[in-house]
Specification:
Layout lengths: L2 E9 L6 H8 L3 E5 L3 E5 L8 E5 L11 E5 L2 H11 L3 E7 L5 E6 L5 E6 L1
């Protein structure tokens, strides 16, 4: 299992307002927009610094503190279950092309674990 990227997620009532700050001010590229979530990245694609701003976590879930993309979400899910880690949102295939689940880290944060 390999981690491919880690993206902090900021909750906001209007993610579209983030363009002015993250794109215009900081020069990040606008790389994704699903309406409820927008993502900005430094030039170069998915293996570079990124930040997302969202009203929800998708499919009606709360915004997670982090999204961690891995090469095999099912493997991490099984490891988390075996370790007794709290699963907050069960593993599912989402309509926007990811397989994911949420777990709770030791500090109480909701973490989105996903694979494309």
């Amino acid at each position: 299992m390999a981690v491919r990227r880690i993206v902090p997620n900021l909750q906001a009532s209007d993610p579209q307002l983030a363009r002015r700050f993250y794109a215009d001010l900081l020069g990040l590229d606008f790389v994704m927009d699903h309406g409820w979530i927008v993502t900005f990245a430094a030039e170069g694609g998915s293996a570079v610094p990124q930040v997302s701003v969202a009203t929800e976590g998708g499919s009606g879930t709360p915004v997670p503190a982090l999204s961690i993309e891995v090469d095999d979400a099912d493997e991490v899910y099984q490891r988390a279950k075996a370790a007794g880690v709290e699963i907050v949102h069960d593993i599912t295939d989402e309509p926007w092309g990811v397989r994911r689940f949420y777990l709770r880290d030791p500090f109480g944060n909701s973490i989105n674990i996903l694979s494309h």
